[in-house]
Design brief:
325 residues
Length: 325
């Protein structure tokens, strides 16, 4: 029996989340809703502008949010990435363990990554990310014994910005496939997809069993004009393709079977982490042997609960109510 349901890989980032105005986003010359890589100097310029409006400070990053969600649902998750040697590294690892996520973190000698999450009144989140030591992730950071003790490997497309990260992803995926560990990937962000489209498609064709993305990410990767067409194209390249469509729900495709899962109505306050929690719910369902409709229902439910509050993670879960549909 596997020790873990999911072994996740991503950039460990200590999150600083703040509520901001549209004017600030404009003044910073950011495109609202995107994820932007910044250097340490740029980040230190922004922090004083948002410090009085901080609403959360805690361990984060897309993959860590998903592993936390799986743990909250009752699953067993493990998280891999690279942190630094500063105080945020210790806080990060302690935060993972407190949330029930096993740590498989590597440690560098520099600064742990930090993500500034800027939430505007329309609930959109714009992220300015200083990746820090997470950029130094390499194959030697992957603890193979923990990976092979898992049912699924989960990787985000954010891990495609340096050669070392790419090598770590390729190594982990190839190792997983060789040993019968299923491989899943999140497309993460349309800007990320557009930066690495050709390489991501090659990666999907070689290794990926399950792919998840929102409509913008999926359409960008497949050069299609609708989420339905994007889901169909991706399903031809993988076993399961999931395309989320905000309030229109999500499409889950396996072979020629297409399942539409309605969104769970809610009053959104902060969309940060919606995709991460959808992935958590979906992967939890898969690892528990549930059918695709049930997986999608759990995923939609936890995503809905997440956006109805500030912060990218759940506060509590009524699992019994989520599985019965």
């Amino acid at each position: 029996m596997a020790t873990f349901d999911v072994f996740g890989m991503c950039n460990p980032l200590y999150d600083l989340q703040a509520t901001v105005t549209d004017q600030l986003i404009s003044d910073l010359e950011l495109e609202k809703g995107g994820m932007f890589l910044v250097d340490e100097h740029r980040q230190k310029q922004i922090i004083p502008l948002i410090y009085s409006d901080l609403v959360a400070a805690e361990p984060g990053g897309s993959g860590a949010n998903t592993m936390t969600g799986i743990s909250q649902l009752g699953g067993r998750s493990c998280y891999a990435g690279r942190v630094g040697s500063d105080e945020h590294a210790l806080l990060y690892e302690q935060g993972l363990l407190a949330k029930g996520v096993a740590s498989s973190l590597g440690h560098g000698h520099g600064t742990t990554g930090i993500c500034l999450v800027l939430v505007t009144p329309d609930t959109q989140r714009t992220m300015c990310t200083f990746l820090g030591c997470s950029l130094e992730l390499s194959p030697r950071d992957i603890k193979v014994d923990l990976l092979l003790a898992s049912k699924y490997l989960y990787v985000t497309a954010y891990l495609w910005d340096t050669d070392g990260q790419k090598e770590a992803v390729e190594f982990a995926m190839a190792t997983a496939k060789k040993s019968g560990v299923r491989v899943s990937v999140s497309l993460s962000d349309p800007f990320c997809v557009n930066r690495h489209k050709t390489e991501l498609l090659e990666l999907v064709d070689r290794h990926v069993d399950v792919i998840l993305g929102n409509r913008l990410e999926a359409q960008a990767l497949t050069d299609t004009d609708s989420p339905e067409d994007a889901a169909r194209v991706l399903a031809e390249r993988t076993d399961i393709a999931v395309v989320t469509m905000d309030s229109a729900g999500s499409l889950i495709c396996s072979g020629r079977e297409v399942t539409h899962v309605p969104a769970v109505p809610t009053m959104p306050i902060d969309t940060t982490g919606a995709g991460d929690m959808y992935a958590a719910g979906f992967l939890y369902g898969l690892t528990q042997g549930l059918d695709l409709a049930q997986c999608g229902h759990i995923a939609s439910s936890v995503a809905s609960k997440t956006v109805s509050k500030f912060g990218p993670r759940l506060e509590s879960v009524d699992l019994a109510g989520l599985i019965t549909i």
